[in-house]
C-alpha cells in the first residue's frame, strides 16, 4: 500500500505487540472514560454511548407520538362524515404527523444510529466533536418537545408538512401556527447539520488504522453519503423557512405574486431539500440492511463495490428529481421531462442494493430471527413502494395520482419499507451491543408479523382509494363513493400496526438495560468491530484492520484488542483521547485530545431552542435575551479550546509516536469549519437562485441598482477583510515575540472591514429607495444583505473574542487551530459578501 | 482531493450535465426564444459531458491495466469506471429528452 501521509505502513507489522501492558493502564482508561456519577452528569454526558442511546430513545418517542396522531387520523377516516375530530384539529394533526415523522423521527433516528454505532464500528473512542453531539441532541429534544406541545394549545401548524404558500402566508394563515413550524423546523435543521458535520469528520478522520476506503463498513459509507447529502440539501429548507418567516413577519414578498413573488419559489426550495430528504432517510437504513443481512445470512455482502456505487449514485441522482413533486404546476414541458427521466433513473441504484441483498440471502444461510424478518419484510414493502414510485415518475400517470391517496400509499410503502422496518431490524440486531439483555425473540416475531400485516392492511387499500379519487389531507369524505370499506380496512390495519409498536415499547421496558458494565454480546454473529468487547472507551486498543469483516477474518482479534496489543491501549496523557487518521488509507496522523463533560453546551442548546421558540410567540425581548445567553454559553464553551497540554508527541503503542496537536487542513477542527462554510455557501447559492428566479418571473418590477461608484468601496473593504484574515493567521505562524498580538489586531481589523463593507452596501441600497417589502427585488436583495449581515455579526463577535483571548495569553503560535478556523470564517464572509454584492449590483444590471 | 474527484468523476459530470440542461431549458423559457437553438446548445453540452466521461473511464481503465498494487487505489479506479458508465448512461438518458418528440 502506498502512503497517503508519509506514514510507513511497515510499522503495522509491529502489531499485535507481545509485551505485557503496564499495571493500572486499563484502570486508568476506565477512570478517564468514566460514566456519570452524579445525577446531573447524566444530562451533561457527552460520550456517544450515552448520547446515542438518548438520541435513539428521543427519536422513537417522537415516532410513537406521531403514530398516535396517525391513529387519531385513521379513527376520523374510518367512516364517512364522522365528527370525531373538527376540521381545524384534523388539519393540525395531519400536519404534525408528517412534520414530526419527517423532521423529529426519521432523520434524527438514523443520525442517532450513526452516533451510537459509528465510533465502535470504526474503532474510534468517540465521535470527534462530542460536545457538538450533545448540543445537537439537547436542542433537538427541547425544541422538538416544545414544538409538539403546540398541539395542546391549538397552535400546531396546519398547512401540511410542506407548508405551501400562499396557504401559509398571513392572508390565509393569520395565526402563529405556521410560525411554529417555520421557526421550530429551522433550528431542528441546525441540529441535524451539526450531527452531519460530526459524522463526516468521524467517518473520514477517526477510523482504525488500515481501515482503508475499500474496507470501510458499508454502514459507514451510507452514513458518510447521508451526511454529505444533509450538507447540500438542508440549507435549502433553512433558507426557505427564513424567507417565509420574513414574509409573514415583515411582509417581504418572496412568495406573494401581487408584489412580484412566486409561490413556485417555495416549492423549488422546499423540494430541493424535500426529495433528497427521503433518500437521506433511506440511505442509512439501507446501510444498516447491508450490514445486518450478511450477519443474518452468515455470509459476506454480495457486490460490496456495486452497493457503494449504488449508494453514491442514489445520493447524486436524488438531487436531480425534486420537481417530480411539481409535475402539476405548469412547469415547461421539457423541464418536466428531465425530472421524469431522472425520477425513473433513481430507481436503478436502489434496485442494485435490493438485488445485492437478495443475492446475499441466497448465497448464505438465512436465519429467520427478528432482525432477519424485519429485513426481509422491509425489502418486500420497499420494492412495492418503489414500483409505485416508477409509476408516478410517468408524468401522465402522476397528473392523475397527484395529491390523491395513491401518493400516500406510495410514500408510506417506501418510507416504512425503506426506513422503519430496517430501523426495527437494526434495533433488534444492535441492542445486544448496548444492553445487558437482548430484546425478546419471541415477542419480536409477533411484533414483526403484526407490523407487516398491519402495514399492508393500512396502506394497500389506499392505492385503491387514491385511484378512486380520494384526495389527500381531507378530514372526511362523503358516503357511497366506494371509499368506505377501504378506509375501514386501513383503520383496522393502522391499529394492528399501533399494537405492534406498543408491544415493542413493552419489550424495551422489559429488556433494554443500557449503561451497564456488560452487554449481551454478539448474539447474531456479526462481523464488525462494534462486536468486540468494549467499554465506555469503546475498544481497549485500536486494531490494525486487514479485512472488511474483521471479527470473521481476524480470529484472534478480540483477544488481542482486549489485551491492549494494538494502538492506544491506554490514556497516554491521562486524558480522553482518540486517534485521528487520514481519509483514504486511515494512516495514523495525530492524537486528538477529547473534552470532558461540562454544562455549557447543554445550556447553549436550551437557550438556542428558547430563542427560536419564544420568537414564535412574539415575546421578542425574552427571545433576544435567550439568544444572547445562547451565544454566551457557546463562547464559554469555545473559551477552553487550544489550551496547552502535555508533550508534543506520545507513544501510542508499538513504539509509534504521534503528535498531540495539529493545525491547518489536516486538523479535525479545520474540516468541521470547512463543512460549516459549505452549508453557509449553499444557503447563499440558494438565495442567489431565489433572486434570479424571481427576476425571471417579473423582470418588469426590477429597478436599477445603486450607482456603480459605490461598489469599489464595498469590494475594497471586503478584500481588506479577506486579506486581513488570511494575513492574521500567517502572522501568527511566524512565531515572533509579537506575532500573537499582531495577529489578533489584524483579525479585529479584518472583522471591522467586513462590518464596514456591509454598512456601505446596505446604506447604498437603502439610499437607492428600494425597500424590502415593496417588491420581490427588494425582498431578495435585503434577504441577501441580511444573510451577509448575519455573517458579519458573527465575525464582529469573533474579532473581540480573539482579542480577548490574546489579552488573556491564550493565543499562541504553537496552538493556532482556533485562530485558523476563525480566519477561515472571516475570509469566507468576505468572499460571500463579494459574490452576493456583484450579483445584486450587476445582474440584471442597469435598465434590465 | 484528486482521488475523490477521480472516484466520483462520472457522477459529478452527470450532476453537472443535469444542472446544465435544466439551466439551459430555464433560460430558454425566460428568453422565450426559439427553443431549437437552446436545444442545440443542450445537445452540444451533452456531447461534451459524454466525451469527458469517456475520457475519464479510458484513463482509469489504462491505470487499472497497469495492475496497481495499492488495493485502495484499485478500488477507487474501479468505482470511477463503474461510476463513469452509470453517469454516461444517465447523460444519454437525459439527452433523449432533447431529441425525443414532445
Question: Can you walk through the features of this model?
Answer:
Chain A: Its EC number is 7.1.1.9. Chain A: InterPro entries: Cyt_c_oxase-like_su1_dom, Cyt_c_oxase-like_su1_sf, Cyt_C_Oxase_1, Cyt_c_Oxase_su1_BS, Cyt_c_oxidase_su1_bac, Cyt_c_oxidase_su3-like_sf, Cyt_c_oxidase_su3_a-hlx. Chain A: Keywords: Cell membrane, Copper, Electron transport, Heme, Iron, Membrane, Metal-binding, Oxidoreductase, Respiratory chain, Translocase, Transmembrane, Transmembrane helix, Transport. Chain A: It is a multi-pass membrane protein. The complex is a heterodimer of chains A (848) and B (102). With 848 residues, chain A is an all-alpha fold. Chain A has helices at residues 25-32, 41-44, 48-77, 87-122, 130-149, 177-205, 218-250, 263-297, 304-317, 333-345, 347-363, 370-393, 395-401, 405-434, 441-467, 484-511, 550-553, 557-562, 600-616, 620-639, 668-697, 711-733, 739-767, 776-807, 817-842; strands at 534-535, 538-539, 577-581, 588-593, 649-651, 657-659. In chain A, the strands form three sheets. In chain A, strands 1-2 form a two-stranded antiparallel sheet. In chain A, helix 7 (218-250) packs antiparallel against helix 8 (263-297) and helix 9 (304-317) packs antiparallel against helix 11. Chain A is globular. The N and C termini of chain A lie far apart (59 Å). Chain B has 102 residues and is mainly alpha-helical. Chain B has one domain (2-99). In chain B, helix 2 runs antiparallel to helix 3 and helix 3 packs antiparallel against helix 4 (71-99). Chain B is elongated, with a radius of gyration of 16 Å.
Amino acid at each position: 500500500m502506498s502512503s497517503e501521509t508519509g506514514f510507513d505502513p511497515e510499522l503495522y507489522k509491529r502489531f499485535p505487540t507481545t509485551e505485557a501492558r503496564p499495571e493500572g493502564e486499563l484502570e486508568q482508561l476506565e477512570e478517564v472514560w468514566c460514566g456519570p456519577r452524579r445525577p446531573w452528569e447524566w444530562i451533561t454526558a457527552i460520550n456517544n454511548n450515552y448520547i446515542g442511546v438518548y438520541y435513539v430513545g428521543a427519536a422513537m418517542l417522537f415516532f410513537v407520538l406521531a403514530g398516535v396522531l396517525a391513529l387519531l387520523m385513521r379513527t376520523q377516516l374510518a367512516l364517512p362524515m364522522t365528527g370525531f375530530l373538527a376540521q381545524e384539529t384534523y388539519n393540525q394533526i395531519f400536519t404534525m404527523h408528517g412534520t414530526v415523522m419527517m423532521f423529529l423521527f426519521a432523520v434524527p433516528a438514523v443520525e442517532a444510529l450513526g452516533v451510537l454505532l459509528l465510533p465502535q464500528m470504526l474503532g474510534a473512542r468517540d465521535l470527534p466533536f462530542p460536545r457538538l453531539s450533545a448540543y445537537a441532541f439537547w436542542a433537538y429534544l427541547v425544541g422538538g418537545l416544545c414544538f409538539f406541545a403546540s398541539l395542546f394549545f391549538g397552535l400546531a401548524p396546519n398547512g401540511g408538512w410542506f407548508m405551501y404558500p400562499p396557504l401559509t402566508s398571513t392572508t390565509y394563515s393569520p395565526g402563529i401556527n405556521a410560525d411554529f413550524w417555520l421557526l421550530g423546523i429551522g433550528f431542528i435543521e441546525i441540529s441535524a447539520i451539526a450531527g452531519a458535520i460530526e459524522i463526516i469528520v468521524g467517518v473520514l478522520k477517526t477510523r482504525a488504522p488500515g481501515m482503508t476506503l475499500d474496507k470501510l463498513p458499508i454502514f459507514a459509507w451510507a452514513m458518510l453519503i447521508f451526511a454529505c447529502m444533509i450538507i447540500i440539501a438542508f440549507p435549502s429548507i433553512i433558507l426557505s423557512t427564513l424567507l417565509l418567516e420574513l414574509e409573514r413577519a415583515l411582509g417581504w414578498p418572496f412568495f406573494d405574486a401581487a408584489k412580484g413573488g412566486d409561490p413556485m419559489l417555495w416549492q423549488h426550495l422546499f423540494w430541493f431539500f424535500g426529495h433528497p430528504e427521503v433518500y437521506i432517510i433511506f440511505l442509512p437504513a439501507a446501510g444498516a440492511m447491508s450490514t445486518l443481512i450478511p450477519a443474518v445470512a452468515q455470509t459476506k455482502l454480495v457486490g460490496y463495490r456495486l452497493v457503494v456505487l449504488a449508494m453514491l449514485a442514489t445520493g447524486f441522482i436524488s438531487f436531480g428529481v425534486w420537481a417530480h413533486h411539481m409535475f402539476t404546476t405548469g412547469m415547461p414541458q421539457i423541464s418536466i421531462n428531465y425530472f421524469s427521466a431522472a425520477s425513473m433513473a433513481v430507481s436503478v441504484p436502489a434496485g442494485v442494493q435490493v438485488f445485492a441483498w437478495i443475492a446475499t440471502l441466497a448465497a448464505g444461510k438465512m436465519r429467520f430471527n427478528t432482525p432477519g424478518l424485519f429485513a426481509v419484510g422491509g425489502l418486500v414493502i420497499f420494492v412495492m413502494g418503489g414500483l409505485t414510485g416508477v409509476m408516478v415518475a410517468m408524468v401522465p400517470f402522476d397528473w392523475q395520482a397527484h395529491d390523491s391517496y395513491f401518493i400516500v400509499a406510495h410514500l408510506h410503502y417506501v418510507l416504512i419499507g425503506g426506513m422503519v422496518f430496517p430501523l426495527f431490524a437494526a434495533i433488534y440486531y444492535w441492542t445486544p451491543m448496548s444492553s445487558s439483555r437482548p430484546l425478546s425473540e419471541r415477542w419480536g416475531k409477533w411484533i414483526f408479523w403484526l407490523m407487516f400485516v398491519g402495514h399492508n392492511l393500512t396502506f394497500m387499500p389506499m392505492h385503491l382509494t387514491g385511484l378512486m379519487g380520494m384526495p389527500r389531507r381531507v378530514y372526511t369524505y362523503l358516503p357511497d363513493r366506494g371509499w368506505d370499506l377501504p378506509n375501514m380496512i386501513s383503520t383496522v390495519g393502522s391499529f394492528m400496526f399501533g399494537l405492534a409498536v406498543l408491544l415493542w415499547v413493552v419489550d424495551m421496558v422489559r429488556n433494554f438495560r443500557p449503561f451497564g458494565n456488560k452487554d449481551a454480546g454478539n448474539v447474531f454473529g456479526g462481523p464488525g468491530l462494534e462486536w468486540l468487547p468494549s467499554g465506555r472507551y469503546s475498544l481497549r486498543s485500536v486494531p490494525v484492520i486487514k479485512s472488511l469483516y474483521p471479527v470473521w477474518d481476524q480470529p484472534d482479534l478480540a483477544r488481542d484488542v482486549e489485551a491492549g496489543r494494538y494502538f492506544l491501549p491506554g490514556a497516554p496523557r491521562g486524558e480522553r483521547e482518540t486517534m485521528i487518521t487520514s481519509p483514504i488509507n486511515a494512516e495514523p496522523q495525530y492524537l486528538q485530545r477529547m473534552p470532558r463533560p461540562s454544562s455549557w453546551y447543554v445550556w447553549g442548546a436550551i437557550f438556542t431552542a428558547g430563542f427560536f421558540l419564544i420568537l414564535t410567540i412574539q415575546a421578542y425581548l425574552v427571545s433576544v435575551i435567550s439568544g444572547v445567553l445562547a451565544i454566551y454559553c457557546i463562547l464559554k464553551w469555545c473559551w477552553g479550546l487550544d489550551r496547552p497540554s502535555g508533550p508534543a508527541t506520545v507513544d501510542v503503542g508499538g513504539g509509534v509516536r504521534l503528535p498531540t496537536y495539529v493545525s491547518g487542513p489536516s486538523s479535525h477542527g479545520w474540516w468541521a469549519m470547512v463543512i460549516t462554510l459549505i452549508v453557509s455557501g449553499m444557503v447563499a447559492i440558494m438565495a442567489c437562485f431565489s433572486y434570479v428566479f424571481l427576476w425571471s418571473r417579473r423582470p418588469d418590477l426590477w429597478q436599477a441598482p445603486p450607482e456603480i461608484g459605490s461598489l469599489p468601496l464595498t469590494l475594497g473593504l471586503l478584500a481588506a477583510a479577506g486579506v486581513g484574515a488570511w494575513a492574521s493567521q500567517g502572522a501568527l505562524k511566524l512565531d515572533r515575540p509579537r506575532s500573537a498580538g499582531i495577529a489578533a489586531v489584524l483579525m479585529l481589523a479584518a472583522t471591522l472591514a467586513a462590518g464596514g463593507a456591509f454598512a456601505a452596501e446596505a446604506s447604498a441600497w437603502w439610499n437607492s429607495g428600494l425597500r424590502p417589502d415593496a417588491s420581490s427585488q427588494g425582498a431578495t436583495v435585503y434577504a441577501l444583505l441580511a444573510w451577509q449581515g448575519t455573517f458579519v455579526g458573527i465575525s464582529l463577535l469573533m474579532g473581540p473574542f480573539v482579542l480577548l483571548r490574546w489579552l488573556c495569553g491564550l493565543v499562541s503560535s504553537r496552538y493556532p487551530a482556533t485562530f485558523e478556523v476563525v480566519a477561515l470564517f472571516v475570509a469566507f464572509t468576505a468572499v460571500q459578501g463579494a459574490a452576493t454584492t456583484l450579483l445584486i449590483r450587476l445582474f440584471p444590471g442597469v435598465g434590465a | 482531493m484528486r482521488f475523490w474527484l477521480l472516484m466520483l468523476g462520472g457522477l459529478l459530470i452527470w450532476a453537472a450535465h443535469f444542472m446544465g440542461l435544466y439551466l439551459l431549458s430555464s433560460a430558454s423559457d425566460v428568453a422565450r426564444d426559439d427553443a431549437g437553438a437552446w436545444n442545440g446548445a443542450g445537445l452540444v453540452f451533452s456531447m461534451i459531458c459524454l466525451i469527458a466521461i469517456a475520457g475519464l473511464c479510458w484513463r482509469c481503465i489504462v491505470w487499472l491495466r497497469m495492475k496497481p498494487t495499492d488495493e485502495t487505489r484499485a478500488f477507487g479506479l474501479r468505482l470511477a469506471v463503474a461510476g463513469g458508465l452509470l453517469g454516461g448512461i444517465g447523460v444519454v438518458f437525459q439527452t433523449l429528452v432533447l431529441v425525443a418528440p414532445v
